[in-house]
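Hi support team,

I'm filing this because I wasn't sure whether my run with 6-O-phosphono-beta-D-glucopyranose finished correctly. The job status page said complete, but I'd like someone to confirm that the output block is well-formed before I use it downstream. Pasting the exact inputs I used:
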Amino acid sequence: MTSQTIPVEPFDCIVFGGSGDLAERKLIPALYQRQRAGQFSDPTRIIGASRSEMSVEDYKTFARNAIHEHVKKDEIDEEQIEQFLQRISYVAIDAKSDQGWPELKKLIKNKPADIRAFYLAVSPSLFGDIAKQLKSNDLITDQTRIVVEKPIGRDLASAQILNDTIGSVFREDQIFRIDHYLGKETVQNLMALRFANALYEPLWNSAHIDHVQITVAESVGLEGRAGYYDTAGALRDMVQNHMLQLLCLVAMEPPASLEADAVHDEKVKVLRSLVPITADNVQENTVRGQYRAGASAGGPVKSYLDDLENNTSNTETFVALKAEIGNWRWANVPFYLRTGKRLAERVSEIVVTFKPIPHSIFESSAGHITANQLVIRLQPDEGVKQWIMIKDPGPGGMRLRQIPLDMSFAASFDERNPDAYERLIMDVVRGNQTLFMRRDEVEAAWRWVDPILEGWESNEQKVQGYTSGTWGPSGSIALIERDGRTWHDSL
Ligand code: BG6
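And here is everything the job wrote out:
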């Protein structure tokens, strides 16, 4: 099966932080892939903007290298790269002064495309300066959008300030807050699974579901981002955004349509229904971990503290927690979340465990009847497995066995799996905000996360060490086993 590429209208995409890490690893490769797919109409342009003094030719070399470095070999098409590079310009610009702004203005205005997307791949401390410059240089039209990357704040108060700053210059329907997890193929498939099938929805509640697990495990460590990471930690870096977004998609009521506000409204309701974890119960409901030396990603690795060259950090590189949603649908159905760096494998998945059958008609010799599980694998090996019980084939009498109904996407479709950024950038151009976060969503997520952070601080909750290459600290296992459950074995 193959899908069709529908071209988008011509646009100018101005990437602030254009020579930075995100542009190099994700944005330029994603835009190149859309060029290769034939999705651009002329005159689409990509304009890099950053403080580095470089010529347009230098920037084209940077972009060419980024493509060669971060796109798979069999997806490199030199002719397409050349056509892509013809779309590229560059301006050296300083967000904090007037330097470069007249050049940017001239560049944009000399060949205006209707749609303009300013992509802020920069530190949030620059969001305000850039927004003000865009306004005072008269660069914002009705068809202009602004794209902002996380972290949107480090708590509710700072998120509100950032949102106010951007909101003073842009309308909410022009602001695209990226959570790249929402652009992942299988995350969207979760919506298809729930709302394009009659099968699951009647069972999707506390009468039939025992609990839900969401795991986002990484084998990598800090990847050169120690400065940022040590001030954030896993709760801010992964839970406040990606993991709560996944939780929302599992738990939300069916929206009336896929229209952005309809989906955002339902997600906000879930976030507001999360039962607070506060200083009183934070120790029993959360576990903080920090990796020690060990073996991960194919070789020996140092501890977090050695990676950081700092012996005192109490920042968590792992967090596990038990969340509860206080509404009719999910009462008494725990959602166990865990995420961490330097774990045994890179695997992200959502596991929905159904309740056990109410009565068994089988002799004990038939074996154990395992509760049904729906496993939605986000990465790698994207797909969905519905585990069911069957009779073991053969004449050996009634013996039961668990097998998966296996919907492995990689095996079912001929196409490459596009990176989340490809879809999300095209949605920015189309003006479709469904897969982005609305202001109240980001703030509702912080409203739930803040008391956890405060509880950790007031309880002086220390990180528990775990050996790199394992599944995290023993406290994480205890967190779920205390409830008579176990983490799904992802291997
Ligand atoms: C980012 C986090 O948002 O997501 C990183 O800041 C993390 O720390 C990354 O590594 C994980 O994304 P993915 O797509 O590789 O699962």
